[in-house]
């Protein structure tokens, strides 16, 4: 079952959900609205990405003047907030006001496993050039109860502190 905004707040206060920084004004009927940070990753444009190799990329920051994202490029951003729970699974979704402008922030991996408490890396694509700014609300996170025995996330992105490029190459090196 999905948690209501009021239940999310009570679970934050009980330390069963972690959202930092937490702003009560971001509570929604069934989710919490999150913002995008100023930290981004862009893969080197002339490289063919290889799932067996650590991809070449560069990090950059968006300034208050904004940054124009271009179509046909994948950008990785991150949530301003560190969010998660050892008690609930979560899903991340874009806000309609962002997706209706042709900006998709998390299109292939919306499930956040129980035990992952991180600033979430966002997979960003745009349909046409769009100027974005740091710290704007771009999405929402919903929390879901688990049924059955809990098994906390121990994957390759656990403990992330910032935006993270693909780590698919680790799967080949086990």
Structure overview:
The chain has a single domain, classed as Distorted Sandwich (Deoxyuridine 5'-Triphosphate Nucleotidohydrolase, Chain A), CATH 2.70.40.10. It contains three helices and eleven strands. The protein has helices spanning 5-13, 96-99, 169-172; strands at 18-20, 32-43, 57-61, 67-69, 75-84, 88-94, 103-104, 111-112, 117-126, 130-132, 137-145. The radius of gyration is 16 Å and the shape is globular.
Annotation keywords:
174 residues; mainly beta; Deoxyuridine 5'-Triphosphate Nucleotidohydrolase, Chain A; 3 helices
Task: Provide a compact summary of the structure.
The protein is mainly beta and 174 residues long. The chain has 3 helices and 11 strands.
C-alpha end-to-end distance: 35 Å
Tally of DSSP helical segments: 3
Sheet-strand content, in percent, reads 35-45%
Q: Please identify the top-level CATH class.
A: Mainly Beta
Q: CATH topology, which one?
A: Deoxyuridine 5'-Triphosphate Nucleotidohydrolase, Chain A
| SSE topology string | HEEEEEEHEEEEEH
Secondary-structure-based class equals mainly beta
| Oligomerization state | single chain
Number of strands: 11
Outline: globular
Q: Summarize the biggest pleated sheet.
A: 9 strands, antiparallel
Please identify which CATH superfamily we are dealing with.
Deoxyuridine triphosphatase (dUTPase)
Please give the radius of gyration in angstroms: 16 Å
Q: Which range best describes the helical content: under 10%, 10-25%, 25-40%, 40-55%, 55-70% or over 70%?
A: under 10%
Please indicate the count of domains.
1
Instruction: List low-confidence stretches.
Output: none
CATH architecture title: Distorted Sandwich
Determine the mean pLDDT.
Answer: 91
């Amino acid at each position: 079952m999905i948690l209501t905004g009021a239940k999310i707040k009570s679970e934050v206060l009980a330390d069963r959900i972690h959202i930092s920084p937490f702003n009560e004004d971001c509570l929604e009927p069934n989710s919490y609205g999150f913002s995008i940070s100023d930290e981004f990753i862009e893969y080197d444009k002339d490289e063919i990405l290889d799932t067996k190799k650590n991809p070449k990329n560069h990090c950059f920051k968006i300034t208050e003047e904004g940054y124009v994202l271009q179509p046909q490029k994948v950008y990785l951003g991150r949530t301003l907030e560190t969010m998660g729970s050892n008690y609930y699974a979560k899903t991340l979704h874009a806000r309609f006001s962002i997706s209706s402008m042709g900006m998709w922030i998390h299109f292939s991996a919306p499930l956040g496993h129980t035990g992952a408490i991180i600033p979430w890396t966002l997979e960003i694509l745009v349909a046409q050039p769009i100027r974005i700014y740091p710290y704007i609300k771009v999405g929402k996170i919903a929390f879901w109860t688990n049924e059955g025995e809990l098994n906390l996330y121990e994957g390759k992105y656990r403990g992330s502190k910032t935006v993270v490029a693909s780590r698919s190459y680790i799967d080949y090196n086990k």
